[in-house]
TrEMBL record:
This is phosphoglycolate phosphatase. InterPro entries: HAD-like_hydrolase_sf (IPR050155), HAD-like_sf (IPR036412), HAD_sf (IPR023214), PGP-like_dom2 (IPR023198). Belongs to the HAD-like hydrolase superfamily. CbbY/CbbZ/Gph/YieH family. It comes from the Bacteria. Pathway: Organic acid metabolism; glycolate biosynthesis; glycolate from 2-phosphoglycolate: step 1/1. Pfam families: Hydrolase. The keyword Hydrolase applies. Transmembrane segments: none annotated. GO terms for cellular component: cytosol. It comes from Pseudodesulfovibrio aespoeensis (strain ATCC 700646 / DSM 10631 / Aspo-2) (Desulfovibrio aespoeensis). It catalyses: 2-phosphoglycolate + H2O = glycolate + phosphate.
Amino acid sequence: MQAVFFDFDGVILDSVAVKTAAFAEMYADHGEAVRRAVVDYHLSHGGVSRHEKFRHFHEQLLGLPMTEALMARLCAAFSDLTLAKVMAAPFIPGARETLAALADRSVSAFVASGTPQAELEAIVLARLGHGVFAEVHGSPRTKVEIVRDVLARHGFAPARCVFVGDAMTDWRAARECAVPFVGVSGPSGHPFPDNTAVVRALSLVALENPSPVTEPA
């Protein structure tokens, strides 16, 4: 194993519920049907950046135009609602121990997240300090772009790497990059195909037994 790519929310920190509640709160004034649609879309599009979600909510659900100024206000409000709670969120069981085990074996760990880059860096630094991850990557780049860039720059063989995620966005990124995959299941289950390696707690053993997700023809 040369490298492991980790999503962050729901994989390193148990913080998915924090962001779900924030989206629900931000759209509560638009009625229960919209609020429910927002939550459902958010949960079924884990790993997608908040920018893409806000654009979908306004243009598709509300039929309202999105502007750069509005996007900036929405993202700032979302950060205000979530940042302190994410900073206090518990770790996913086994996350810190698995990261330490990878470091002991000189296996590089990378973050590939939908969280904005600057915010992600601040969270990782506050919760884990320097040096735990070789690199930390967030939006606006997609996870496919992040993984392909890291593979190319470091000369890693995709088949000797692992992607760990909790959403189909992660599974699809692994598939497009021909990187084996391990899914992390939340309290209500997981969205992955039946043949996917899925765990509730992270461990080195789990990473050594991923699903052989291959690039589509």
